[in-house]
Amino acid sequence: MMRTILLSSALLLFGTAAQANLAINPPLPVVPDKTFDITSYGAVGDGVATNTTAIQSAIDAATAAGGGMVIVPAGTFLSGPIHLASQINLHLSDGATLEMLPLEKYPGGTENPDTFIGGSGLHDVVISGPGMIEGQGTPWWPYARIRGARRPRMIALSGCQRVLIEQIKLHNSPMFHIAISGHSQDVTVRGVTIRANPSTDPVNPGHNTDACDVSGKNVLVENCDVSVGDDDFTCGGGTSDVLITNCTYGYGHGVSIGSPTSGGISNLTVINCTFNHTEAGIRIKSDRDRGGYLHNLSYLNLCMTNVDCPILIYSAYMATNREYRALDKLTPEIAATYPAAPVGRRTPIYRDITFSNITATVSPGRRAGLIWGLPEMTVSNVLLQKVNITADKPFGIYFADDVRVVDSHFVTSSGVNQLNYTNATVTIR
Fold it and tell me: Cys staple from 350: which of 144, 379, 392, 411, with CB 3.0 to 4.6 Å?
């Protein structure tokens, strides 16, 4: 079942400016002007010595003094897990590498490894560059496929206020590179470079190496350069007022939301970013056991090349049937057979989403995009304005209401404005 309406020029568009949230400017941490060099506490940057105790001693000394900058000078400093404190700036100088102990020496191994750099309930926390944090993650990645095995995250902060991560280079984390959660607030990630092997690497594929997972309120991510093996950015439920701008994304699963979205996500804007070889450009994913209310999402001024799916919105992330998991092969006929379920507390709700001024070329054999709601809860109020995508397969719109396609072109070998849809109300102008 489908219904298409051709709109007149008198249509009053759902303005992108009304949705975009461009004034995000979180207050930055305040850290006292005191310095604590880790070598003064016994650290040796020879790439051999283990410096966990020395680095933690420097952090503890700074904390006892009321806070300050803990300096990692030039050199390679091996370490196990360390714990940050409030009013601390962990600063890696030019030429400095803070290196996670290798798998065979990392405390807890694959049974119970702690986060490499962690903190909970803190305020005024900084991790800054221009040095590097090296995760030595390659031997860890195969354990993603072993039931019960665990891997450490590189940076994980929970329930923190006024967080700044800037300039630092993050490389080959065993699992997530940056994970900020637990109702954190006023978070800035800027000028950060993050690298890990793509999940398609033929020799050492990177698994679950998310670059920047930030959930919370009042979040700014800007001027970052990311290429990893999983989500380039993602956030979960309980997130609002997010601005992602001027970032460059390479390999990875794109700028994502979900899959857990319980608690809702609102007022998120992605603007002036580029994507090259990402699996998805924009991806919104959830399912009936983990959903929430997602609304006021804006994606503006984006350029994508060789992506697998520029726009991907769906509510069947955990579907087990092969025909529902093969998204590139999903047809209106297959989508229409997806079974309905009662609306519940965790039903995903997607509303008020704008895509404007987006250009994309799609990898061979892939589709231009997909918006796929649930029979019991359609995706609603979506604007595609000045969206130009070239792909082998059409854009699919299934179980969606009030989808407006304005001044947009979806070009396939079969022609222009190639859309297929079912159980959808689509207007084209």
Answer: 379
Omega into 259 within 30° of 0, i.e. cis?
Answer: yes
**Looking at residue 27, what DSSP letter applies?**
P
Q: Which residue matches tokens 């580029």?
A: 274
**The one-letter amino acid at 11:** L
Copy the structure tokens of residue 98.
């803070």
Spatial separation of the C-alpha atoms in residues 425 and 427, rounded to whole Å: 7
Positive or negative torsion for Cα 308, 309, 310, 315: negative
- Tell me: cis bond preceding 130? Omega within 30 of 0 counts: yes
**CB contact at 8 A, 255 and 282:** yes
Is residue 31 classed exposed, middle or buried when 0-12, 13-18 and 19+ CB atoms within 10 A define those classes? buried
Q: Which two tokens stand for residue 112?
A: 């119970």
Please list the rounded mean pLDDT of every run of 10 residues in the chain (429 residues).
Answer: 38 44 92 98 98 98 98 98 98 98 98 98 98 98 96 98 98 98 97 97 97 98 98 98 98 98 98 98 98 98 98 97 96 97 97 98 97 98 98 97 97 84 95
Contact (Cβ atoms closer than 8 angstroms) between residue 48 and residue 75: no
- Among 255, 271, 385, smallest CA distance to 307 is for 255
* Cα 378 to Cα 374: distance, rounded to the nearest angstrom: 5
pTM, full prediction: 0.95
Tokens 């601390």 correspond to: 88
